[in-house]
Amino acid sequence: MMIRNRWTAAGFILIPAIAMLMTGCSRTADRKGDADNEKETITIEEQQEKDEEPAVTEEEDSEAVPADVPEDWQAMSEEELAEFTDMFNSDEYNGFLSVSFAGADDIDWEEVLRLGAGLGEQDIEKSEVRDYLKAAGAGELFGDLIVVRRRVLDDYIRSHTGSGMISETDIPSWIYIKENDSFYREVLGHEQLLYECISGEKLGSRYRLRFRVSDNSPGVDPRSHTGEFADRDVEMTKVGDDLKVISNTILSDGSGDDASNTDDGGSDASAGTPDSGDITDEQALAAIRDYCLKDNPDLQNIVNEGEYETYWTVTSSDENEIVVLFRSYTAALISYHVDRHTGDTYVTEFVPGIMEEEERSDETLNVRDYMK
Q1: Cα angle vertex 205, ends 203, 209, to 5°?
Q2: Ramachandran category for residue 331: left, alpha or beta (phi over 0 → left; psi -120 to 50 → alpha)
Q3: Are strands 333-339 and 242-250 parallel, antiparallel or unpaired?
Q4: What pLDDT shows up at residue 54?
Q5: How much is the pTM?
Q6: C-alpha–C-alpha distance, residues 182 and 187, integer Å
Q7: Are strands 232-239 and 242-250 parallel, antiparallel or unpaired?
Q8: Are the C-beta atoms of 156 and 96 separated by less than 8 Å?
Q9: For residue 276, how many other CB atoms are within 10 A of its CB?
Q10: Residue 141: CA atoms inside 13 Å, Cβ hemisphere, count?
Q11: d(CA 109, CA 99)
Q12: Residue 81: how many CA atoms within 13 Å on its side-chain side?
């Protein structure tokens, strides 16, 4: 009996406690509901304020993003110009300034790669030298033999222009040996033009640069920057870590800033023309090539077909004479000795395996008659 009374008393104690807990839970739920309502009310108010904000028109939105206009281009610092001067005086980039081109598909790779563009290897296995001599039809080397691997050349073209592979006919002065998948060429020394980046501007990853031929370059008339020595306008873009050359325009019409520097302040009409001034290596090379093609109309087809190794290259150059070598499809090595000042030219010939030494022929010409 006493036991029943103890449990009854405990029950009286538990009932109020449970009631209090239920009341507490109810109040907590009420507070949570109030908070949710308050949170919902704030969200609605914010949305209403946002809806009341004036809408941005397409015209205003377009004004918020800077347009790609010339006014946005920023002038480059002297330090940046100096960096581009060094870059384009290196073997890696110098060749791009030798010819005009409007795009990667328009590049004369024969000129750009004339000195190897810094890609050439000179530590060549003897077996490769023998392969080259056999392909060239020569008994010995006349200069420094350099080799450019196909994969290296493809990577260079892709990283510097964004273009793809080129064919063997695009660089006819190089001998391609399929078994080695490599290009070979003899270089007997050649002085390249030097340049100075005189102005430039940039917009994001794009660059516009103007280069001037340095007066310290061989064969350059310091009084004039027209014709072959005219200023160059280069466009480039940076893609990742690569600087790609988009175009190069040689301002041969003298449209560069201060293109002429004559005493009377006017233009020097004779400078850079075929009839005056010292002849450059590039002019001599182009003139001899034109001379050979005009003298033998079938030669161009032979060069285009690429079945026989045929090319022209400058093998030596100094302040008085330029020597242009023509490697004929007959394997004959014909050298044109050009007087840099007058253009008078005499010819020597050597046929490997037939002649013991180089001999002078009766052929003479003046390269100025074939300069454009």
Answers
A1: 65
A2: left
A3: unpaired
A4: 52
A5: 0.51
A6: 16
A7: antiparallel
A8: no
A9: 14
A10: 17
A11: 9
A12: 16
